[in-house]
Amino acid sequence: MEYVVAISGLDPSGKAGLLLDCCVMRAQGIWAAGIASALTVQNFRVAKGFTPVETKIISDQLELLFESGLPKAVKIGMLPNAKIAETIFSALEGKNIPIVLDPILSTADGLPFIEPQACIRILEKFGKLITVLTPNWDEVTRLSEIRKFVNVEIPAFAEFAFSTGIKAV
Q1: Would you call 98 helix, strand, or coil by DSSP?
Q2: pLDDT by residue (tens digit) across 42-94?
Q3: Which domains are assigned to the chain?
Q4: What is the DSSP letter of 54?
């Protein structure tokens, strides 16, 4: 069976995260398998908090899915902490699966998820596995500040991303 795996936070409103990713994939005719990286507490207007999913559950879910055959791609959204990121990327290492990483640092209303410093370390460690990195302007700005670029510029951030092995930004 051909499928794509979406890994992200489970937003119960369906306006973002895992539910939205899976809906978009299905609308495009793609079978989506979904793995929650965190359970969020939010509604249509505000996010109040989140709880990361245990790494063992994420690891077991990926392992069992892969027994059915490797996915055509993996789309990763919310990584609530470095430990979960490490678990996910370690499970994907050596599989030669295209990976899209959307580095979600916070909700639209400002609830922080992973720290920008931890996100930079993840990119430095696992960049070679990432096919496409899709940060928005706010994420580029915040990640650029950590890297201490003189000016927040797309070319400087892209150069950093490419230096980690990421193939496209």
Answers
A1: coil
A2: 999 999 999 999 999 999 999 999 999 999 999 999 999 999 999 999 999 99
A3: 4-163 (3.40.1190.20)
A4: P
